[in-house]
Structures are given as C-alpha cells and as structure tokens.
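RECORD TYPE: inverse folding
INPUT: structure tokens
STRUCTURE:
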C-alpha cells in the first residue's frame, strides 16, 4: 500500500480549519431544552445532596413525582456537572464546557491510539484525517458543546477501547484489562446507553479467546457500572428507581429487544446527515474489507458489537446515539480514503471524492446552521424575567429559563412536563396551548411564559394563532404581556 506524501500539511491544515469552525460556533451557542433539565439536576444535587426536577413537575402526579426525588438520571454526568458548577458557578457555559472538555480528552486519546497502534511513519496523517471527520460530523459538532452525556460517554468508551487494545497487544495485559473495564463501567455510570462498552469489550475478548482477560475486564466493568446505584440505600429507594425507569416515556416506547436490534440499521439512515456518513462507511467496507480485516480487525469487531449492543439496550433510535459509533466509523473511512487515494484506480478515487464531497456539503450545511443560530441566553432570560410581575412564585417557562433565573422563583415548570405527561399518560390526546395553560394552572403556576426562541414544540406558534387581545382570558389565564416573540399569562385562580 502506498501512502500520501508524509510531508504534506494538508491533513493538519484540514483539522485546523474544522477546529476553527467549531470554535467559532461556541460563542452564544443556542441552548437545547435538555440542557436546562440536566443542569437543574446538578443544581439540586449541589444544594440538597440529591436530584429532583421541578422542571419536570407534573409529568407524574403520584408519590414518585420527580419534583420530590429523582433516582433515574445520568449520574456520573450530573456529578461531573456538580464539580464544574462548584468551580465556575451555575451558568450555561459552565455546563456546556463539560462536553467540550471530554471532546478534547477524546482527541487526546485518539492521538495516543494512532501513535501507539498505527505502526507507520504517516500515523499523524491518519490522526488528522480521522479527527477532522469526527469533528465535522454534524452530531459531534453540535453535541461537543451541548450539556448532554453522549460525548462524555463516547470518550470514556473510547478510552476503554484504547486500553483494551493495549491489553491485547502488550504482555502482560491484565492491568490494562482492569483499566479498560473501569472506563467501560464509567461510561455506563455516565449514561445507561454506556453499557454497550462493557458489552462490546467483553464480546471482543471472548471472540479473541482471551478468557482470563474477560475476567479482569468484567470485574472492574461491573464494579463501576454498579456505581449507578450509589444513591440507593434501601429497597424502597430501589423500587422508586425501578418505577421511574419503567415509566419513563422513552422506556415505555421501547420495542422488545429483538425488534430493536432488527431495526438498529435505521439509526444509520435516519436523515441525510446520517446517510452521508453511512454511505462512506459502506463504500469503505466494500472496497477495503480485506485490508481493514487484516489491519484493523479489532476496531471492525468492536464497532459491530457496539451496534449490536446499542440495538439491544438503547431506549429509542435517536440518531444522536450514533455518536458512540462515530470514532470507529471515522477511522475506517480515513483508512479507506488514504488507501484508495494512494492507488492508481481513478474510478475509485472519483467515487470516493464524490462521497466525501457529499458528506462535507450535507454536514457543512448543518454545521453552518449551528454556527449561525446564536442567542445570549442570560440576557434573553433577564429581559423576559423583568416582565413577570412577581418573584419567588411558581411559574411555567421553557427549561432553559433556569439559567440565571432559577434562584428568582419558587419553582419553574417546563413546557416539556406537559408534553411528556400528555404523550405518555393521555395517549392520543392532542397537545395544545390551551392544554399547556390548563396543566400549569391546575398545578399552581401563577405565571406562564411562552417564548418564541426557547419554548419547545409548537406552543408559541399555536399561541400566535389565538384570537386573543391583551388582558383576554383563556383556560383560566389572563394574557398580561404580548409581543411578536413572547406571551405571558397570569393564572386567575391565584391571587
């Protein structure tokens, strides 16, 4: 196999360009609703020593209601958020920085991986091409500065694979297996989807007939996975965890494991973003399978076992769960590209170039939208908060309204509470702005804020269609403030 010119700086410049785009996207990056929900978990854990969710209040109306105590959450991710909050305060950038930190750690270990295991002089070329593919992937570009646990879980899982590979190559290998198992377990502790890493690592070792290594790997993988139960101190608390888990909306919607596995391929073709990446993978496998099998066999098998694991265990086929696959797919594509471009077959080169161009265009458009969509959420929330006549009362507002405002109100209930409550306990019932107002009023919220930029779903659009003047009344609520970008209602049943 002939490789590209080792002196070429193109791969390095390519990575610098992609990394520059990513950095340009960070300032006033638009928040997502889940960031508020998970950040609130951090807030209550830091203040009270346990997790609860006032944003989710009303999703359940029983003794297991989330505003009292929540046991089912992304535990190590929340604990990491607590550490960052202690260091930097309760601000949106504090929490976004968690994912950014782990993304940088991922690139560090990707560098270590190529340096150790790619025994070629041009290993840096492979690293920069792979890193560029990973970062330019629209899901990584987005979630790399988003307070959700996927990037942290992906990074811990990749570190586990790094030490697993190290244990398979180096002798003696049992220390590396213990470390690999630890990081696999920590990934599961971060997000329950992370159980795919103990699953994939164990299967790879069994496939390689490294039975003693399986024992060492399993010991630490199980121990650190079981840390998920660190805040469970009684049978009653375990039963509450189980109840909250089994009645979670996404878990309720999960198909039987065998059906989920049979449909896992749909995650690769969910939209044109996933298709542009998946087609490159299929092309790489088809034209480089023999080379990949001979030189990157462990990655091929590990990726296969990850796909099986996510198909079996993931609650839902959210396309962004495919983040767990991204490093391994990107590596396969990078190897394929550099292999094909070093050959004389012009047809393959042209085909590879077209597919790469498609990936760049599709993900570039998506990333451009991420870069362009900006908001100063602290200032935005402050402007809206100034319109609410009272403080230290119960209100309903978008989940990201908690940033800089959480201490100003007795509680803030998210519109997501109404949506998920209706979706999973009143199946088939239409979700309307009147329903949102009624839901909030019945649960004691004095003011209800509906915002064009941060309210989820279609509630603002629906409110805009109401034939309602200022001081008009609907669903027991009076419209007290109105503009092209927000509506504020007052609950008339509370004086």
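DESIGNED SEQUENCE:
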């Amino acid at each position: 196999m002939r490789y590209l010119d080792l002196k070429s700086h193109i791969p390095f410049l390519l990575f610098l360009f992609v990394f520059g785009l990513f950095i340009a996207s960070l300032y006033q990056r638009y928040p997502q609703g889940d960031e508020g929900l998970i950040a609130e978990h951090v807030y209550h854990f830091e203040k009270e020593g346990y997790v609860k969710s006032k944003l989710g209040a009303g999703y359940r109306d029983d003794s297991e209601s989330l505003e009292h105590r929540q046991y089912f959450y992304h535990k190590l991710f929340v604990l990491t958020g607590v550490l960052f909050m202690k260091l930097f305060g309760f601000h949106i950038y504090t929490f976004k920085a968690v994912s950014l930190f782990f993304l940088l750690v991922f690139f560090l270990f990707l560098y270590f991986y190529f340096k150790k295991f790619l025994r070629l002089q041009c290993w840096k070329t492979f690293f920069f091409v792979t890193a560029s593919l990973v970062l330019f992937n629209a899901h990584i570009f987005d979630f790399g500065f988003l307070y959700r646990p996927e990037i942290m879980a992906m990074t811990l899982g990749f570190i586990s694979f790094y030490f697993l590979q190290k244990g398979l190559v180096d002798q003696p290998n049992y220390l590396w297996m213990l470390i690999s198992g630890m990081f696999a377990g920590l990934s599961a502790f971060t997000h329950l989807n992370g159980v795919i890493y103990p699953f994939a690592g164990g299967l790879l070792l069994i496939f390689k007939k490294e039975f003693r290594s399986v024992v060492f790997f399993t010991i630490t993988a199980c121990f650190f996975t079981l840390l998920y139960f660190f805040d469970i101190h009684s049978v009653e608390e375990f039963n509450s965890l189980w109840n909250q888990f089994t009645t979670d909306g996404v878990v309720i919607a999960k198909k039987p494991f065998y059906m989920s596995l049979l449909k896992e391929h749909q995650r690769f073709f969910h939209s044109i973003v996933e298709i542009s990446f998946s087609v490159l993978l299929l092309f790489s496998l088809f034209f480089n399978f023999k080379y990949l099998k001979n030189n990157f066999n462990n990655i091929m098998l590990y990726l296969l076992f990850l796909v099986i694991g996510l198909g079996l265990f993931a609650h839902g086929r959210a396309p962004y769960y495919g983040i767990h696959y991204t490093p391994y797919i990107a590596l396969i594509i990078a190897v394929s590209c550099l292999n094909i471009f070093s050959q004389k077959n012009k047809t393959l080169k042209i085909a590879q170039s077209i597919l790469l161009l498609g990936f760049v265009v599709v993900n570039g458009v998506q990333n451009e939208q991420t870069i362009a969509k900006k908001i100063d959420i602290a200032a935005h929330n402050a402007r809206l908060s100034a319109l609410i006549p009272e403080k230290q009362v119960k209100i309903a507002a978008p989940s990201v309204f908690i940033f800089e405002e959480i201490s100003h109100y007795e509680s803030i209930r998210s519109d997501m509470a109404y949506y998920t409550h209706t979706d999973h306990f009143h199946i088939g019932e239409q979700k309307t702005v009147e329903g949102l107002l009624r839901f909030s009023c019945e649960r004691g919220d004095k003011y209800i804020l509906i915002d064009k930029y941060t309210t989820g779903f279609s509630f603002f659009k629906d409110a805009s269609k109401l034939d309602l003047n200022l001081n008009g009344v609907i669903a027991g609520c009076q419209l007290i403030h109105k503009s092209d970008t927000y509506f504020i209602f007052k609950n008339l049943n509370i004086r």
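NOTES: Residues 1-7 have pLDDT under 50 and may be disordered.
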